[in-house]
Design goal:
Layout: H1 8-24, H2 38-45, H3 63-70, H4 80-87, H5 89-99, E1 106-110, E2 134-138, E3 148-150, H6 156-163, E4 169-174, E5 178-186, E6 189-198, H7 205-209, E7 214-217, H8 224-241, E8 246-254, E9 259-265, H9 275-282, H10 287-305
Helix pairs in contact: 1-10
Length: 306
């Protein structure tokens, strides 16, 4: 848990909650705040199985998974390739397109705020064919860090300035007006769908982690056929990316009841009030059981390796 990403504080909260749950279940647990000495720390602690509660770069992007593979330590969650693809919104989008799964139309801007002006663009500096509103986001960040919804032409460049510090590429997407929903996946099965209703303009970092800033409706207010379609899509995304054990897929359902996949979280938040635990609880799975079932995915990996 922890690490040095922009999601460090959330990761610590997830890790501490998971650690406490495993202790209550009778496991011997060592909490490791990831630093440059993580390999030595794992070796010194004699870690047999790694429960990953890292969010963001260094945790969800396949790097810690690669280290654990080299050290031959089984770990929870998805493998190296799925983690790397899931963390990169452009690679995820291309895979969704290839699989014929619905996702908002997008364009990729590369370079810097200055360079983007040299790209083919419409009147407002938008990629050709795009109209406002659009969503501007970094390619490899979570928790909506660096994300903006642009409704006025004058705000587009400010949105790029906000997103580019997090990497050399930025994603521009059509904004899907409608309901925001999320589907947790556990052991290859969908959990109940949660509808997310932020009190701010959109579900940003503050709305996610400030009590009272967002209303969560469970089950989501969707027609039964659309509810089932959203769950079906979430499973298809989980499988297309190659995820293992658990994940969470975020979608928007437009005014015509058409669902669009936004992204997948290969290591979703695991505080006791996070979305995946909320959905699991609605399915009759209490937090401690959920964490132990996630741990079981790593136990299976160890068994598969003999």
């Amino acid at each position: 848990m922890g690490g040095a990403s922009s999601e460090r504080e959330v990761s610590l909260r997830s890790g501490q909650a998971m650690e406490a749950a495993l202790r209550r279940r009778g496991y011997r647990v060592s909490g490791v705040d990831v630093s440059r000495s993580v390999a030595m720390d794992l070796d010194r602690e004699g870690i047999e199985i790694a429960v990953i509660a890292l969010h963001g770069q260094g945790g969800e992007d396949g790097t810690i998974q690669g280290l654990l593979e080299v050290m031959r330590i089984p770990y929870t969650g998805s493998g190296v390739a799925a983690s790397a693809i899931g963390m990169n919104k452009v690679l995820t989008k291309r895979l969704l397109d290839h699989q014929g799964l619905p996702t908002p139309r997008y364009a990729v801007l590369r370079g810097s705020v200055d360079i983007h002006l040299d790209l083919p663009a419409g009147q407002a500096g938008l990629p050709l064919g795009f109209e406002l509103p659009v969503v501007v986001k970094p390619v490899s960040e979570g928790s909506t860090i660096g994300v903006s919804i642009v409704r006025e032409e004058r705000d587009f460049e400010k949105a790029l300035e906000r997103a580019f510090p997090y990497g050399p590429t930025v994603l521009v997407e059509d904004y899907i007006d409608g309901q925001e929903v999320t589907v947790g996946i556990l052991e290859e099965k969908p959990l109940p769908v949660i509808e997310i209703v932020p009190k701010e303009e959109f579900y940003n970092y503050e709305a996610k982690y400030t009590p009272g800033k967002t209303e969560y409706i469970l089950p989501a207010r969707l027609p039964q056929t659309i509810y089932q379609e959203v769950q079906r899509l979430a499973i298809k995304v989980h499988q297309a990316i190659g995820c293992e054990g658990y994940s969470r897929v975020d979608l928007r359902v437009d005014r015509k009841s058409r669902p669009f996949v936004l992204e997948i979280n290969t290591l979703p938040g695991m505080t006791e009030s996070s979305l995946l635990p909320k959905a699991a609880k609605d399915a009759g799975i209490e937090y401690d059981e959920l964490v132990e079932r996630i741990l079981a995915t790593a136990l299976k990996k160890r068994g598969d390796r003999g």
